[in-house]
DNA sequence: TCTCTCGTGTGGTCGGACCACAACGTGGTG
DNA sequence: CACCACGTTGTGGTCCGACCACACGAGAGA
């Protein structure tokens, strides 16, 4: 028997209760609304509580959907929708099958979640491109400084390899962009700050389409890419030298140059004049 | 800087690669798997495509779930799970009823989404507190500088009001923290960068529990809170004066002071095995 | 001992039914 | 004509039960 309860306190809102709406009696006392939460949100809260309390850690297995539904006294549908939400946040992951690798696990997959989040909100113009670029500048300047101090040898080797890729002549603009993205993300990773790295990657992913569009409009591509590459090499030199200040300064200049060289990115940031 | 190396323990479950060895006969040559996507993911892609192409903008109404299911030739369940995912990202919002305000709309609600994302991944130790604090320092330094240049009069009034709240004697530590959070987020908002502001708010939300825990362990609370408040007033003065550099410097010092004053935040990040 | 097969448990998908809710049309009533 | 009560309608919310695809693992068979 010995079943560890996953959660007791899911107090379902009984749907068929109308008793508080009496006939026109006094209703103006301080009866604040009760924040009606839907079923799947209650399930999310239950799972989230387990995570926040530390009862569920990365790698742990959740009960089967059917069992969870039975324990929480909700339908399997509600449980599945809750799992979808946490899965969308990169916190859960489901695998079909039986035995070892099957079931729903606590995972650590923030990358795809953050990328989709930022990509969509940038596309909806909720986060203006100008603001995203400002954030990018801040993050990568910080990452460069950290990387100059902390970067390991193999991280520097990775960066060197990426520069060699971009040094190949005749590289397509898309391939250049992808390698360039990897280069910048690798620097962020080398800095050792996981949040910097994830944010940097997500920002680049959210700007991929606009950047590629801007690339196609660059007239003297050979010249621009050569200058970008030259700046990359300088940045890498500063990282090798462990010069944090110089690495940050070069990165700052590099990103500003890139933005100014790409039409449509930094052109119309916000419609004011001050 | 005592920095934990952060092995970044991602126990990612890789998709099992089964090299298809046919039961009999030769193995298939280059028949790479087709990236099996589940139904709800296909629906997500369909909706996301509309958003990315600009066909769906904030405020637009989606077709009813039943109609969408019929058009996409999937079950209503799949559509609903997809809507849940986009809703979790703050991109969609569903309202019951009929007519005007009913249905599923494209929304712009990144706040709750980013807060839950960060809160969960911080709780799972996927993003170490140290890294989050480092990001906070970077963002708020930048926000302060921007706010010094761009802040409107009413934004400064809001900040003044929050400082008056915190100046009240006998304020509970929780109330102080909430007002303090509002103060810092308001500065970020005054800077005019939406992403800065959202990130700042999400970071504060993700650290709320650890901060409150640390607050209870502060011995000389009156002294610490008085110093924090004094720094707040100095920052606000710099903002009023429009001195970006000074505002950034003061904010930097303020946050470092706060972290060093609170036990358990910057001191012992969680040293495990290695 | 090894190999094959089939049972079993997992998430994935589906269709249908019913509920709660909010707007709107309709009709009655002043 | 103006107003109001009420039923209609269409929306998302919830639940159920069934079946599928999949992968492990125990047991039968060689």
What can you see in these coordinates?
- The structure is a homodimer of 274-residue chains.
- The first copy, chain A, is mostly helical.
- Chain A folds into two domains: 13-108, Arc Repressor Mutant, subunit A (Orthogonal Bundle), CATH 1.10.10.10; 111-261, Four Helix Bundle (Hemerythrin (Met), subunit A) (Up-down Bundle), CATH 1.20.120.530.
- In chain A, 61% of the residues lie in helices and 3% in strands.
- Chain A is built from eleven helices and two strands; from the N terminus they run αααββαααααααα.
- Chain A has helices at 39-52, 65-72, 76-88, 110-123, 129-150, 153-167, 173-190, 194-206, 208-217, 221-241, 244-261, and strands at 92-95, 103-106.
- Chain A has a two-stranded antiparallel sheet.
- Mean pLDDT of chain A is 86; it is low at 1-30 and 268-274.
- At the A-B interface, helix 1, helix 3, helix 4, helix 5 and helix 8 of A face helix 1, helix 3, helix 4, helix 5 and helix 8 of B.
In short:
By secondary structure, chain A is an all-alpha fold. Chain A is 61% helix and 3% strand.
Key descriptive features of the protein:
mainly alpha; 274 residues; 2 strands; homodimer; two-stranded antiparallel ribbon; disordered C terminus; DNA-binding; Four Helix Bundle (Hemerythrin (Met), subunit A); disordered N terminus; 11 helices; 2 domains
């Amino acid at each position: 028997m010995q079943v560890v309860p996953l959660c007791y306190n899911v107090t379902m809102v009984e749907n068929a209760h109308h008793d508080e709406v009496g006939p026109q009696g006094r209703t103006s006392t301080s009866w604040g609304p009760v924040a009606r939460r839907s079923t799947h949100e209650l399930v999310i809260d239950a799972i989230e509580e387990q995570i926040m309390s530390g009862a569920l850690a990365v790698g742990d297995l959740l009960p089967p959907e059917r069992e969870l539904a039975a324990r929480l006294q909700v339908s399997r549908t509600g449980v599945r929708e809750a799992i979808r939400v946490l899965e969308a946040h990169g916190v859960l992951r489901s695998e079909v099958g039986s035995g070892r690798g099957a079931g729903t696990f606590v995972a650590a997959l923030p990358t795809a979640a953050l990328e989709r989040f930022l990509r969509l909100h940038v596309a909806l113009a909720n986060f203006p491109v100008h603001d995203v670029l400002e954030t990018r500048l801040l993050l990568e300047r910080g990452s460069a400084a950290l990387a100059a101090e902390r970067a390991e040898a193999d991280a520097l080797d990775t960066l060197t390899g990426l520069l060699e890729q971009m040094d190949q002549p005749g590289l397509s603009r898309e391939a250049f962009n992808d390698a360039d993205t990897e280069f910048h993300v690798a620097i962020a990773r080398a800095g050792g700050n996981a949040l910097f790295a994830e944010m940097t990657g997500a920002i680049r992913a959210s700007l991929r389409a606009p950047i590629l569009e801007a690339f196609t409009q660059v007239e003297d591509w050979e010249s621009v890419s050569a200058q970008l590459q030259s700046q990359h090499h300088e940045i890498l030199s500063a990282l090798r030298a462990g010069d944090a200040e110089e690495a940050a300064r070069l990165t700052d200049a590099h990103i500003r140059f890139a933005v100014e060289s790409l039409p449509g990115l930094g052109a119309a940031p916000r419609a004011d004049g001050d």
